[in-house]
């Protein structure tokens, strides 16, 4: 069995190293040795003498390599949209199974690639794309296939989780925690993709697609980042036994699915609450299996390579058996993705209010007017410091945002100090 | 595709119900419908009218059912050693793949059954046996196959975890917490199998076998239960930022594996520390993937049936593809299981000592004499209340127990108040 490796950066180099180091184990698992037929790189003149492979394997002709008769499998770890998309499409059209770690491409073009895999009678595996080494694909697609997943809550971005953890631990502001994350290398020089939730949204699309056996486009994922997170939000959450996390939330509804990424308060006793620092975790609620959680490193070259190797073994074994993982006759749902306004959630609302009798009555009437019932109310402070903190029962997001809109117009309310969704209760 | 269901108790009834309810999904996943060919039960005269199956499917002739030409797969959920062993052996000898949730049988006879599966060219799947619905088999055997697992720490028994959690939360004694667990139905009338660690040891054998691709016999697992756990141990752990859990610990050593079940202190910040109540979790350290954790319900009829259904889909797909999961040519390790004395661990030792100068020196010399170095020492109390609490660095278990033996002979030591291993640091 021979594979073409496309890309030889951080992940690719690790794949080469691990395939060499664990070659015997891989051969035993597959039933025959797996060799590297060639490695496509952008430039041949880089020093790769540290890698345990014959230098003649490197080529700049990726398409030629993919199409070679002796290549059985294709492993894409180059990243980016093009030429990765063309490479993968070419491999699948040739009936060659593909393993990829390319989150961006899958989020943009997943349905087309899945269709291409079916059409070509080939496998498309991407365990490493959703959460690096955390096994998600097999648990979601295989272990739970006899089950029905109702909800997934995930911490799927290490940078934002590090920032939330630090703010919570030290009382730091968002900008202080971000600066620290940058210094430590947890945040990139341009942290937009992480802190504005783009990375988490791409993973949310993949995870929701896996969990619900449907296709969720990146553009259908509602997204809010953590840029506006205030130390006072975190303190307020803590005082009520909650912590703040950037969550990806995917739920199976009666008439579709809801997929969103935003900061949220969860109970401090929730299994996700203790997932700190750069770690990731995905919490799953299934009808029969109940509550499950998968925890691990959500990034890193070696960790990602570990997941890629697991996939290589799987597609190699499928090829030997003459089967594909997701047979063409398998019916996939095509579930509508519901707009954020229809998402069912709870709100934590903090108001700076005028200190006078009747304020709570007017605020409560505003919630009632939009059909939102209140779970808890705390009044505190006096004079200019008077505050109301309210937590609602579950309602549609639209009802909640309409309520907040109207609250901000009340003369009794100086300011809507913060609004955050409450999940996992 | 037709299956024979052996047993129709709590889990079997759920399998029947879920196969009916989710039949279309299962058919889509496998590529063809899966039907129940027959259900072997001990007695035909029980009322099973609530189950959505044709009553003529029930039979007391399990062997006849297994051997029927139209039966492709066999699902054993009857439990116990015999006749389950004969049934499974018969099915495998006929080349029919088997899904089982039978932890006791696998722990007693796993190697022979695996060999029978290989000889018969059939699959033997048992996701539900190790930790009910928590997906372990696929992550350990498939996702991580390109990796090397170094260590597994697991909370794999809900009853003991509930008791440990309650003792920790309320300061209750072991007998009070056990009484409460019994009242709530978390502990059986005869709780021996749980609290003395037999159930956890059987799971430890399965998990270690999966993680290290070897065979670990139940008899090779070192086992201590929680019967002697004292409220003071838990308080002492808490004062140092640790919690006490009954752990199953499997480690890959240079020259073999070590598998043990005993109460241990772990840091309160360890991901396992917050696994409370009846929940289970398995924490894995792999060379490339790093730290992973799998969390969920470790028991329950529906949860177990969910795992069984996942396995049914897997073996049915393998059969359609004409492959087995663990091909006969796959090399399995046959690693020696090391005795407890050679396990590498740390100890937390609490001593009631004579309040006089030089006691610490004598105690420290005793540790040094056995080559055990100390990480931390706390002295507290005066007169009859004088105490020394010591935590060691890593050493062989035998060195540590020899040290404790000698400490108990010192005239400066009134009593070795407690000794507990420290893990996960």
Automatic annotation (TrEMBL), chains A, B:
Belongs to the homoserine dehydrogenase family. It catalyses: L-homoserine + NAD(+) = L-aspartate 4-semialdehyde + NADH + H(+); L-homoserine + NADP(+) = L-aspartate 4-semialdehyde + NADPH + H(+). Pathway: Amino-acid biosynthesis; L-methionine biosynthesis via de novo pathway; L-homoserine from L-aspartate: step 3/3; Amino-acid biosynthesis; L-threonine biosynthesis; L-threonine from L-aspartate: step 3/5. NCBIfam families: PRK06349.1. Residues 348-421 form the ACT domain. It comes from the Bacteria. It holds the Pfam family NAD_binding_3. Gene3D superfamilies: 3.30.70.260, Dihydrodipicolinate Reductase, domain 2, NAD(P)-binding Rossmann-like Domain. GO terms for biological process: methionine biosynthetic process; threonine biosynthetic process. Its cofactor is a metal cation. NADPH binds at residue 103. The lineage of its organism: Bacteria, Bacillati, Actinomycetota, Actinomycetes, Glycomycetales. Catalyzes the conversion of L-aspartate-beta-semialdehyde (L-Asa) to L-homoserine (L-Hse), the third step in the biosynthesis of threonine and methionine from aspartate. The active site is at residue 203. L-homoserine binds at residue 188. Its EC number is 1.1.1.3. NADP(+) binds at residues 6-13. Keywords: Amino-acid biosynthesis, Methionine biosynthesis, NADP, Oxidoreductase, Sodium, Threonine biosynthesis. InterPro entries: ACT-like_dom_sf (IPR045865), ACT_dom (IPR002912), Asp/hSer_DH_NAD-bd (IPR005106), HDH (IPR016204), HDH_cat (IPR001342), HDH_CS (IPR019811), NAD(P)-bd_dom_sf (IPR036291). GO terms for molecular function: homoserine dehydrogenase activity; NADP binding. This is Homoserine dehydrogenase.
């Amino acid at each position: 069995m021979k594979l073409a490796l496309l890309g030889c950066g951080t992940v690719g180099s690790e794949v080469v190293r691990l395939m060499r180091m664990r070659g015997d184990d891989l051969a035993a698992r597959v039933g025959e040795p797996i060799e590297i037929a060639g490695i496509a790189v952008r430039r041949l003149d880089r020093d790769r003498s540290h890698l345990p492979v014959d230098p003649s394997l490197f080529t700049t002709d990726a398409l030629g390599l993919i199409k070679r008769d002796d290549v059985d499998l294709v492993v894409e770890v180059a990243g980016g949209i093009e030429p990765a998309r063309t490479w993968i499409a070419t491999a699948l059209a040739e009936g060659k199974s593909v393993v990829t770690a390319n989150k961006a491409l899958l989020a943009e073009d997943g349905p087309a690639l899945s269709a291409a895999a079916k059409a070509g009678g080939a496998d498309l595996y991407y365990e490493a794309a959703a959460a690096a080494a955390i096994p998600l694909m097999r648990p979601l697609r295989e272990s739970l296939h006899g089950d029905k997943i109702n909800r997934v809550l995930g911490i799927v971005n290490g940078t934002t989780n590090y920032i939330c953890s630090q703010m919570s631990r030290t009382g730091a502001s968002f900008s202080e925690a971000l600066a620290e994350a940058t210094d430590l290398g947890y945040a990139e020089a341009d942290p937009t993709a992480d802190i504005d939730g783009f990375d988490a949204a791409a993973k949310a699309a993949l995870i929701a697609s896996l969990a619900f056996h449907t296709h969720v486009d990146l553009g259908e994922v509602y997204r809010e980042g953590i840029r506006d997170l205030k130390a006072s939000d975190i303190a307020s959450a803590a005082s009520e036994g909650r912590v703040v996390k950037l969550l990806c939330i995917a739920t199976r509804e009666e008439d579709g699915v809801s997929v969103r990424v935003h900061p949220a308060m969860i109970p401090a006793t929730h299994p996700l609450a203790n997932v700190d620092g750069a770690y990731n975790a995905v919490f799953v609620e299934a009808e029969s299996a109940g509550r499950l959680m998968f925890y691990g490193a959500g990034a890193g070259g070696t960790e990602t390579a570990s997941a890629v190797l697991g996939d290589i073994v799987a597609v190699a074994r499928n090829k030997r058996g003459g089967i594909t993982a997701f047979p063409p006759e398998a019916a996939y749902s095509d579930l509508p993705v519901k707009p954020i306004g229809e998402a069912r959630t709870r709100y934590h609302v903090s108001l700076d209010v005028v200190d006078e009798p009747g304020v709570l009555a007017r605020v409560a009437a505003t919630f009632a007017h939009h059909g939102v019932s209140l779970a808890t109310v705390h009044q505190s402070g006096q004079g200019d410091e008077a505050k109301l903190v309210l937590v609602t029962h579950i309602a549609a997001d639209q009802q909640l945002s309409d309520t907040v809109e109207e609250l901000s117009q009340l003369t009794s309310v100086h300011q809507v100090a913060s609004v955050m969704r409450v999940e996992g209760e």
